[in-house]
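Response to reviewer comment R2.3. The reviewers asked that we include at least one raw input/output pair. We reproduce the pair for Dihydropyrimidinase here without editing.
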Amino acid sequence: MRTLLKGGTVLSTTGGSLADVLVEDEKIVAVTAPGVFTTADTVLDASGKYVLPGGIDAHTHMEMPFGGTFSADTFETGTTAAAWGGTTTIIDFAVQAKGTSLVSTLDKWHEKADGNCAVDYGFHMIVSDVNDTTLKEMETCIDGGVSSFKMFMAYPGVFYSTDGEILRAMRKATETGSTIMMHAENGIAIDELVAQALGEGKTDPVQHGYTRPSALEGEATSRAITLARVTGAPLYIVHLSAAEALSAVAEARDGGRNVFAETCPQYLYLSIEDLARPGFEGAKYVASPPLREKKHQADLWRGLRTNDLSVVSTDHCPFCFKDQKELGRGDFSKIPNGMPGVEHRMDLLHQGVVAGEISLGRWVEACSTTPARMFGLYPRKGVIAPGSDADIVVYDPAARQTLSAETHHMAVDYSAYEGFEITGKVETVLSRGKVVVSPSGFSGGTGHGRFLSRDKCQYLN
Ligand SMILES: NC(=O)NCCC(=O)O
Ligand SMILES: [Zn+2]
Ligand SMILES: [Zn+2]
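Raw output as returned:
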């Protein structure tokens, strides 16, 4: 089965050029000057459109247990929404509960995801219990295609690890060539600030932001970098939101360290003013780290331009406003942490191109090519080139759309970007050669997505 995408502007990390793309079954077999091939079983006219590698969202949480509930998207609904938004690979987090094993956790996440995904997927492993057994099990995870491990300096008593535990896991990462991903917020100090606020009767959602100041993200980021330096482990800072944390990452990178970071669209476009919306509305915007003051946004865009921020992921972790965010009415610390976004990352970052914040090449790099390299998927994913999986997005840069919960496909009852006017729209999406989204709608299937066994990070010095 051959599919020809004709007449589009094919994008890569260096920009775009007019080219045709020939797909045979699941793979790209040729990228040629326009008109070299004229026939195929299916010919898609991409004139006036961008043809780019499918998005890779390296940070999602489908069906994630948190605070007595589960994030609202299943692997089925979440990966379907991802496809609608031009994301053809997700890397989700398997979550080790304290006292359980990494191997059984991985099995559990396979049970949830296998056969239920509309696009390809991989896993990172959240390590919340560091001991001799789990350290050994990290090797089994790597053998099972999971080459990155997330740890938390936040959430004492739940996911939190001490510096000593982090050090031990980092040593293991150095030994095995795997990557430590870090949720870098000083959770011990934050818990004190939370207790103090609640003690003073301050219970509104905006307190979530006030009790997690950016300085405590900066401090934890610096500490994580120091621990990585001592152990030699590759370090990837997840969901970086604050200028102080970015400075620490930039300094480490200038020093030649294997330190990387991602940010998320919510930190580029939303702010603590959203957390401060009247009544309980701010609960929709509770995620950790919290939305920051607007002044941080310019730094984050600059970080994206300079590659101090290498990746944009969503940290998609949706909780419904009506019955889940509600758990924290009267006590902001009980609001489930997380926001929806897997469907909108490509569109939102395209606004950065439209506004002149980033180039077309940088859009592709931060949303697809770099995550592929960072998490051991390149060149199978992240590039339009012969031999790569035919994960392809045809994007209309001139189309207009308005984001809304009325029209999105995520299983959550609100949009964090309600009413956002977007220039550009996904027109057609191929996942391993199969058209899964087209102007006629969704034509994928939830058994289509395959588990991706990942190699180690492809950027290490
Ligand atoms: N970010 C967030 O608030 N929820 C998801 C879990 C995490 O990434 O820390
Ligand atoms: Zn986190
Ligand atoms: Zn997350």
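Residues 214-231 form the longest helix (18 residues). The chain has a mean pLDDT of 98. Further pairs are available on request from the corresponding author.
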